[in-house]
Amino acid sequence: MAVGKKKRAAQILDLLQQEFPNAGTMLEFGDTFQLLVAVILSAQSTDVQVNRVTGQLFSRYKTARDFAEADLEELEEAIRGVGLYRTKASNIQKMAHILLEKYQGQVPDDFDELMKLPGIGRKTANVMMSVGFGQPGLGVDTHVHRVSNRLGLVEEKTPDKTELALKAIIPRRRWSQAHHLLIFHGRKTCTARKPKCPACVINHLCDKRL
Ligand code: SF4
């Protein structure tokens, strides 16, 4: 079964790669610290919303020290355009303090160290490893979770379990690519409501096609 899924996953990624040759992050950032802030802000918000906020945010606060020393209420106000902005402002500020104390203000390129930071879950840590540090990482957001379960590549209830199941059938060298391709496919075709199955380039490989 796993061999069948591995082969199907490879075929799916090949076809999606043809459809989305430039799939990659849509977030705008200047360095790995700003990427980390942007990824934290992206939880339950679209990349468009995040970019709208970070344009001004990063012109005012650029480094971990800037965020650590910011007035919390002003920071909240600056990211008000994204969901859960109060919690995110608090987590970003705590995270900035920890980076200053433990890592000279730099973001650690280590999955387990990233996971210890406030507000960082497996998705964010994976995105940081792949987009920020060019290492294998397969972040599972709502799109990746929904699409890979509909396809029948995995049968999992939570994004974290989906991540581990996908990693078992996709080679490490394609983890980052899979993350971006499944997001692009989920945004354009396999949307949460009314997936466009007749127009889907991988519908012959899908368990749930409508
Ligand atoms: S066939 Fe439909 S459900 Fe399956 S991946 Fe394509 S859009 Fe999604």
Molecular structure report:
The chain is mainly alpha-helical and 210 residues long. It has two domains: 2-24 and 138-205, Endonuclease Iii, domain 2, CATH 1.10.1670.10; 32-132, Endonuclease III, domain 1. Helices cover 59% and strands 0% of the residues. It contains eleven helices and no strands. Helix 2 (32-41) runs antiparallel to helix 8 (122-132), helix 5 (72-78) packs across helix 6 and helix 9 packs across helix 11 (175-188). It binds iron/sulfur cluster. Residues 147, 150-151, 189-190, 195-197, 200, 202-203, 206, 208-210 line the site of iron/sulfur cluster (SF4). Iron/sulfur cluster (SF4) binds at residues 147, 150-151, 189-190, 195-197, 200, 202-203, 206, 208-210.
Draw up the topology in text.
Layout: H1 2-19, H2 32-41, H3 47-60, H4 64-68, H5 72-78, H6 85-103, H7 111-115, H8 122-132, H9 142-151, H10 159-169, H11 175-188
Helix pairs in contact: 2-8, 5-6, 9-10, 9-11
This protein binds iron/sulfur cluster.
Q: Please identify the oligomeric state.
A: single chain
Structural class: mainly alpha
Mean pLDDT, to the nearest integer, reads 96
Give me the Rg, rounded: 18 Å
Tally of helical runs: 11
Bound molecules: iron/sulfur cluster
The SSE order reads HHHHHHHHHHH
Coarse shape:
elongated
Name the poorly predicted regions: none
> Helical percent range?
55-70%
| CATH topology (fold) name of the largest domain | Endonuclease III, domain 1
Output the CATH class name of the largest domain: Mainly Alpha
How much of the sequence lies in strands comes to: under 5%
CATH homologous superfamily designation of the largest domain: Hypothetical protein, domain 2
Q: Which architecture name of the largest domain does CATH use?
A: Orthogonal Bundle
